[in-house]
Amino acid sequence: MTQSLTIIVPVYNEQDNLKRVETELQDYIDYAQIPTSVLFVNDGSKDASLEIIRQICLDKPHFYYINFDKNYGLSAAIKAGFDNVTTTLVGYIDSDLQTSPKDFDLLLKHIGEFDLITGVRSNRKDSFVKNMSSIIANRIRRSFTHDGMDDTGCPLKIIKTEYAQRIPMFKGLHRFLPAMILLQNGKVKQVPVSHFERIAGTANFGVWNRLLGPLMDCFAYLWMKKKYISYKVADKE
């Protein structure tokens, strides 16, 4: 099967970043190893993000968008992206571009053997408090899920679409994507990627979100793990 990729870009009040997103993703599309398109998911932005997205999609043939009627959160935006792609692969990158679209090529190298490949942010350019809260949150999550991942919050991932569309999303589940692939008996891998300072806009998550939120979500994950149904059809007529 010929591989193709849709990159999901969740957007919430990122008007100052979107033109740079357009430029960098178009540059990536121009030399991408496989046919690639971009799907913006506007998560109820209150600034000019939607107008900018609409203009980008009008000007660029491989850019599309979904617009929510209000703000639902990052997990809902990712879920909507998963539900609306038709390509064999689905990618994800944040609109703050603290990771580089070029690093999708590092992940694509492993897509034949693995079903999800996630980046690990090396030499992170965030504040000490943000880095430490992320490290603690990842340790908490890993102790519950045993997924072996060091940085599930890294906003650079590629997943086989058939696996992504079987994930039953809930709020906060974007932190558990590797674990949800493992529940499907899929294979996951992490690859070091570059990380950059945020140039514009404001982060939407604080220390409270990064610590208490993941802990509460871990209990939701354990409940789902016990109830999760996974099967493969051997034959039918």
Question: What's the number of structural domains?
Answer: 1
Query: Mind telling me which CATH architecture this is?
Result: Alpha-Beta Complex
The N- to C-terminal Cα distance equals: 23 Å
CATH homologous superfamily grouping: Spore Coat Polysaccharide Biosynthesis Protein SpsA, Chain A
Outline the secondary-structure elements.
Blueprint: E1 5-11, H1 18-31, E2 36-42, H2 49-59, E3 63-67, H3 74-84, E4 89-93, H4 104-108, E5 116-121, H5 128-145, E6 156-160, H6 161-164, H7 177-183, E7 188-193, H8 207-227
Parallel strand pairs: 1-2, 1-4, 2-3, 5-7
Antiparallel strand pairs: 4-6, 5-6
Helix pairs in contact: 5-8
Descriptive report:
- Helix content is 38%, strand content 17%.
- It has 237 residues and is of the alpha/beta class.
- The chain has one domain: Alpha-Beta Complex (Spore Coat Polysaccharide Biosynthesis Protein SpsA, Chain A), CATH 3.90.550.
- Strands 3-2-1-4-6-5-7 form a seven-stranded mixed sheet, with helices on both faces.
- It starts with a strand and ends in a 10-residue tail after the last helix.
- The mean pLDDT is 83.
Short synopsis of the structure:
The chain is an alpha/beta fold and 237 residues long. It has helices at 18-31, 49-59, 74-84, 104-108, 128-145, 161-164, 177-183, 207-227, and strands at 5-11, 36-42, 63-67, 89-93, 116-121, 156-160, 188-193.
